[in-house]
Amino acid sequence: xxxxxxxxxxxxxxxxxxxxxxxxxxxxxxxxxxxxxxxxxxxxxxxxxxxxxxxxxxxxxxxxxxxxxxxxxxxxxxxxxxxxxxxxxxxxxxxxxxxxxxxxxxxxxxxxxxxxxxxxxxxxxxxxxxxxxxxxxxxxxxxxxxxxxxxxxxxxxxxxxxxxxxxxxxxxxxxxxxxxxxxxxxxxxxxxxxxxxxxxxxxxxxxxxxxxxxxxxxxxxxxxxxxxxxxxxxxxxxxxxxxxxxxxxxxxxxxxxxxxxxxxxxxxxxxxxxxxxxxxxxxxxxxxxxxxxxxxxxxxxxxxxxxxxxxxxxxxxxxxxxxxxxxxxxxxxxxxxxxxxxxxxxxxxxxxxxxxxxxxxxxxxxxxxxxxxxxxxxxxxx
Length: 382
What we know:
Layout: H1 3-18, H2 22-36, H3 40-48, H4 70-82, H5 88-98, H6 108-116, H7 119-126, E1 165-173, E2 183-190, E3 196-202, H8 206-219, E4 226-229, H9 238-245, E5 252-255, H10 265-279, H11 288-308, E6 314-320, E7 323-328, H12 334-340, H13 346-357, H14 361-380
Parallel strand pairs: 1-4, 4-5
Antiparallel strand pairs: 1-2, 2-3, 6-7
C-alpha cells in the first residue's frame, strides 16, 4: 500500500475514530494496523494527531516594494527597447524627456515614481530581459599615400568643452566579402557634445566621401573647428586637404596613428551603437539603398540620437591598486550639451528648440524601425 493511499485511508477513518466508543475504537485501530502494517502505538498517535494549521505568512524585512507595478515595468521595458537597449543610467536620464510622449495614460503616482526611480532599481527590474551582443566585423581601412606627411597626427586632446571638433570613420556594409561595390556609412561624432551625423556612400572613393563630409558640415548646428580620422584614402586626400586648410578659417585637420584604433575611440564606439546595432552586418550592394539610408540619416536617425538619446562622458580615470576606476558625468543628450555650451546664436538655439518640440521620440523610433526594415528587405530581394 502506497504512502498516499495510507494518508487517504487515515483521513477517511480519523473523524469516525475520534467520535467512537472505546470498543469501537479498538476495532478501528485493529483494522488500521492490519491494513497499513503500522505499529499499534504509532497508529494511535496518527489517529489522535491534531491537524496542523497553515504557517503564518512571514513578512520580509525592509520597505515595501513600490516599483513593482505593471505600469512601471511596461514603461521601462518599452523605453529600453525603443532606446536600443540603453543602460540603466542612460534610461534614468531619458525618462523625463520621453515620459510626456508616452502613448498610454499613466497615473500621477506612477509618473512621480518614474521620475524618482534610481538606475539600480531600473537595472533590477530589467535584469531578466538583458541580452548580450558579440562585436564582429571587417576592417576596411588601407594605408594612405604620401599626403599623410602633410596631415599631422593628433598628439594632444582637443578642447572637449567646445563643440566643433569631430572624429570620422567609415563602416562597411559588405556582408562577409569586401569584393565588388557596396554601401558604406560615413559616421561622425562631435567630441564635446556627442552630436552624431552620418551619410551613406556608394563605395568609399574620394569624391563620394568628400560630398558626404560637405553634407554633414552643412547639417551640424555648430561651426566645424577640427576634423580627425584614420588613415584611409577616403579621408587622406588632396580634395579634403584643400577643403579644410585653404579656407578663411582653416579647420584643424589631423589623423590618427596607423593601426591604432584607440586613437579614434569616440567614433569607434558610435560605429557600434549607432550603425551596427541598427543595420547589422548584411551586405548592401544595391545603389538605390544609398538614397534610402540618407533619407533616414538626415531625418529620423539624426533627431532620434541627438535629441532624445542621452550619453555618458568620461571625466576622470584613475588607477588604484591595479584597478582602473572610471567616473562619468551625468547622462545628457547631445542637444542638451550643445545648448549648455553657450556657443550658439539665439537664432540657432530657437531653431533647435522648435525642432525638438515638434518631435515625438516614440513616433521617431517607430518610423526609424519601419525604414530600416524597408532597407533590409530591399537588400534581401534578388
